[in-house]
Structure formats: C-alpha cells, structure tokens
Amino acid sequence: MPKPPISQRLAEAAVALFDEHGYDETTVDDIAARAGVSRSTFFRYYRSKEDAIFPDHDTLLERIAARLRASTADTAIVAITDAVRIVLAHYVDDAEVSLRRYRLVRRVPALRDREIASVARYQRLFREFVGEWLGDSPDAGLRAELMAASVVAAHNQVLRGWLRAGGTYDPSGPLDHALRYVIATFRHLEQPQDRGGQIVVATFSRAASPQDVMAAIQQHLEPPT
C-alpha cells in the first residue's frame, strides 16, 4: 500500500503524540520522527505543531468558497447548506482523527484558541457570500452577519453532539434538522422577484431535504415557457 501524503502523516503523528504524551511534552522533532521525516520537512508543511492538528483547513475553505461561487441568487441558500455539509463530512470521513483532536482541543488552551480562529474564518466566508448576495438591500451587513453566525452555530452544535457521542451515529440527519431552522429564519432574505401577483402554496413532508424543498419551490415559481 502506498504511504499517505506527508502532510497527513505529520498530522496523524501530531495527534497521536499529543494524545499519548501531552501537548507541551511533544516537540516538532518528536512529530517529525514519528512521521519518518526530518525537522525541516515538517516546517515545509506546517508553521508550528498546533498547525499540524488542523491540517486541511485551507483546502477545505477553498472547497467551500468554490461551492458558494458556483451558485446564483436563486440557489444561494442551497449553496450555503451544501457548503455546511462539506464541512461536516470533512470531520466524519476521518472520524478517528476528529475524535482524538476533539479530546485534545478540550484539554489544551492553545489548541482551543487555534480552533476558534479557524471557525472565525468559516464564518467570515459565509458572511462575505451572504453580503454579496444581499447587495445594497437594507441592513445587508447586519443580516449577513446574523445568517453567517446562525449557519456556523447550527453546524457546530451538530458536530459537537456527534463528537461527544464518540462518532457513534450518522450526523447528517441532525444537520438537516438544524439547517431547516436556519432556512426558515432567513428565507425572507432572498431577493424578491415579481411573479405577476401569483401566490404559490406548497406543503412538504418533514423528511424532505432542503434541496428537495428548494427545487420544488423553484419549479413552481419559474415562469411558463
């Protein structure tokens, strides 16, 4: 089997050593040795040992930004919910590392500070996207801030519940449930469009996903060809 990428090996080594020996007791040299690379190689990938605990945030942020850029005003909320699912899947797909990191972050103040800074970057990305979507509408800045904070809070509440439970269940259902609250609260933020005075009333099963709801509403609101 081919070896994992060096960045992944370093991250896994850091998590394991912090867990086994403690954060303060583990050095960069220890992490490099466990990963089978030199100290200089470590610094080609990470600026510090705490950075190795959050190895993929830049890549993940770019994936989220790409998903948001691919949307239009009519699909902005769907893009946001898709982006939140990308973040959650990132943690779930590597559950063992996520769970060990969670235990470490709870114990080490330096890692908690690093995590808070990472969360702020996600929230800023959502805020900027929503702000562009709302344009120069009244209170656009305030509403963008509130929606971004709500989206991040919904994701973090679901993620924390999954981590506290030891990753023993699929959190996608709880995330959909949490996002429905966000969508219901901020649905009115979408740019209003003139539909000739017509009113559309639709009902959906509680099990319907946000994407299904959006697709059905958009289909009914589109003008006939």
Automatic annotation (TrEMBL):
Residues 27-46 bind DNA. Gene3D superfamilies: Homeodomain-like, Tetracycline Repressor, domain 2. PROSITE patterns: HTH_TETR_2. It comes from the Bacteria. One of its GO terms (molecular function) is transcription cis-regulatory region binding. Keywords: DNA-binding. Residues 4-64 form the HTH tetR-type domain. It comes from Nonomuraea jabiensis. Signal peptide: none annotated. This is AcrR family transcriptional regulator. InterPro entries: Homeodomain-like_sf, HTH-type_TetR-like_transc_reg, HTH_TetR, MftR_C.
